[in-house]
Specification:
By secondary structure, this protein is of the alpha/beta class. Helix 7 links the parallel strand 3 and strand 4. It is globular.
Length: 209
């Protein structure tokens, strides 16, 4: 039993490493009290990964410092631990990779590679403006995965503000449709708990001195 557990642990570690997360994050380390906008029951239901089994999307929308990236990474880690193939990427990095692949006549292979993972985690979507070509390539990836595999995105812009990143209104609407149909949307709010934590610590330091 111990040998089996050890092998399972090593496989989970390999899947987490292969996902390419920028840092380690877990649901246990998330401070739900600091952000009452995020319902713990909803998150723990998502941690069961049934939405991935059903190929549904998940959107985390809110201002910087409200826990989006932490939640995206933690849920992605949970998926990897449960045996799913997971890949993390920044939206701009993904688009740049797709543009380079198109230039090198490797686009179909690259899109197929992103289509094979069970969960694609896209961070900072809608943060920077994308040209039409880059947005169209991203749309191809989302279309490849639609109804077949899950996508989770984190964005500091509400869907109404995505026209800043996707300047073609019809393409923007199509991308939003791909990412929201039959999925879950969690709004993490506007109050940065990172900033609140920093201020509270500074106040404690001042009082102590």
């Amino acid at each position: 039993m111990a040998e089996c557990d050890d092998r399972a642990r090593r496989r989970s570690e390999r899947r987490i490493k292969a996902a390419g997360f920028p840092r380690e994050e877990s649901l246990c380390s998330f401070d739900f009290e600091a952000n009452p906008n995020i319902d713990p029951a909803t998150i723990h239901t998502l941690a069961s990964c049934e939405w991935i089994k059903m190929s549904q999307p998940l959107c985390l929308i809110g201002d910087s410092g409200t826990g989006k990236s932490h939640m995206l990474t933690a849920l992605g880690t949970e998926a990897a631990m449960k045996g799913y193939r997971v890949r993390y990427t920044l939206a701009t990095r993904l688009v740049n990779e797709l543009v380079e692949a198109a230039d090198e006549k490797q686009l179909n292979r690259t899109i197929a590679r992103y289509g094979r993972v069970d969960l694609l985690c896209i961070d900072e979507l809608g943060y920077l403006e994308l040209d039409r070509h880059g947005a169209e390539l991203l749309f191809q990836v989302l279309t490849e995965r639609e109804k077949k595999s899950s996508v989770v995105i984190a964005s500091n812009e509400s869907f109404g503000g995505w026209t800043k990143a996707f300047t073609d209104p019809r393409l923007c609407a199509a991308i939003v449709d791909r990412l929201t149909f039959n999925g879950t949307i969690i709004e993490t709010g506007t109050d940065s708990y990172r900033l609140a934590f920093t201020r509270a610590r500074a106040e404690e330091t001042t009082k102590a001195s």
